[in-house]
Fold this protein.
Amino acid sequence: MSHRRANDQRPASTVAFRSRNALTVAEDSFRLLTSGPGPLTVDGRVIGQGLPQQPIDLNTLRDLLLERSASSDLKDQVWCELIRRARTGEPSWVVGCVGMAMPGLKSIAARIIRSSPSHLADDIVSELLTEFVAQVARIDTSRPHIAARLMFWARKGALRARGRETRHVPCGPRELPDRAAAANSDPVLLLLDAARQGVISPATAELIIATRLDGTSVQEYAQVQGVPAKSLYKQRHAAETLLVAAVQDGRISADSAVPPGM
């Protein structure tokens, strides 16, 4: 992390996020556990689902799960095995679970940090990881979309850390950003501003953030919430229609901040 090139043009917020200790330590630990002699592996013959019929180190396995061709069944089978091993009490497998989820955890943390006071970044990342690990110990692996549900709870933990200072964000109107801030910031702030003004509900803002910005599918979100996906599609479509109308009539100002697909 300290070997930043002189011509590195990454945004300052991204560099700051990458330097946060909790995720950095977890990622470094995962790298050590998945390289060199005796890396953490799972047996592709046990998982099946088209995996190579041999031991697969977790770093390679993570790449396989990130491929577009990776099915939901494959992901669930892998996560069932990872969680089973983590629940034996072996700390290395807990780290393995965190490392396998790292791309998603980083994405969630970066999104929440960008729309939060900078001094809360460490707390947000710590709470994100704490909640993720807690859910590894208790999540129901007999239900589908295990990884998505783990990410959902991790995100709740990160938002809880932010909420200790900002109170009811994203639900507390007095703590939500004003229109000027929302107009010139990222899509999350636009949605929070829309909720503050009553254009959409806080719950619907959360739905749009998760499914439009954080990469969670509506089907996965519906599984976590225990509601039909069809109703969430309708809810999201109605809310996005209201958002477009609010932008057009000037109640909220958003030029480049409107989420893609709206």
